[in-house]
Amino acid sequence: MQEASGQPQDSSGTGNHTTATGGTPTYSQTTGIAEVGDTAILFDNASSEYFGAPDHATLDFGDTFTLEAWIQRSTADASGEDCIVSKGNDGSASSGGLYVLNGDLMLAECAVNVIRYGATPLTDTKWHHVAATKSGATVNIYIDGALSNGSSITSPTLANTTTALA
After folding, report:
1. How big, in percent rounded to 5, are the helix, strand and coil portions of the chain?
2. What value does the mean pLDDT of the chain take?
3. Residue 29, CB half-sphere, CA atoms under 13 Å: how many?
4. pTM of the prediction?
5. For residues 88 and 164, what is the distance between their CA atoms, to the nearest angstrom?
6. Nearest in space to 166 (alpha carbons), one of 65, 70, 54
7. pLDDT the model gives residue 112
8. Residue 120 and residue 70: Cα distance in Å, rounded?
9. Phi, psi torsion values for 127, nearest 5 degrees
10. Dihedral of CA 151/45/56/7: which sign?
11. CA-CA distance, 70 to 31, in Å (whole number)?
């Protein structure tokens, strides 16, 4: 997402280009992360603004995957839900996503059935590198490169759905 305007383009060659939905993101925001050296994109209302890429086989999670992102929450408020990345429910099956819910980083099946919580709440406005890995029943949450496994609730096999990646 190094674009300064327009829609982020997939550079992998698979054509998974995105479209902004629910508002107009603000481009070229300072990251505050010297190692990254890129700019960020600000969503003013994270609950309704996102980029979506149409369903494609290369975007399916399956049951072995890593989801990761650099994030910065706009307030230190521990309430509310922020979706980082999700491949949702298509009516016949549910996939998963990486979310912050009430300050807790979690890997969940459609933000409903929590697979694992991170042990460290994200209740500040600093930049964080967050990641979740899943390989069958083994699920790990990482915050800023450190393993942060909190409660493990369930470990379903996540289905590949026909929904867009958001």
Report:
1. 0, 45, 55
2. 82
3. 14
4. 0.84
5. 8
6. 54
7. 65
8. 16
9. -75, 140
10. negative
11. 9
